[in-house]
Amino acid sequence: xxxxxxxxxxxxxxxxxxxxxxxxxxxxxxxxxxxxxxxxxxxxxxxxxxxxxxxxxxxxxxxxxxxxxxxxxxxxxxxxxxxxxxxxxxx
Length: 91
What we know:
This protein is mainly α. The protein has a domain at 24-78. Helix content is 75%, strand content 0%. It contains three helices and no strands.
């Protein structure tokens, strides 16, 4: 091989290395950022689903009398006249 060819191959390898790992934002950084972007988009989608279910729950609590009664019974121990409330207390 001639010196020119060796220098050309070395220069090509150097440029490839510079493209992959050099500069302020290298290709490796770009790949990392793309992965983080995908993760954040997945989190946003999950939060949207959670937000929608919480909005539905809030709407039901404001407008649905059977839901209001269920929450009053479960969380606050409320009972109707003539009912007896039994609480199980763990030891």
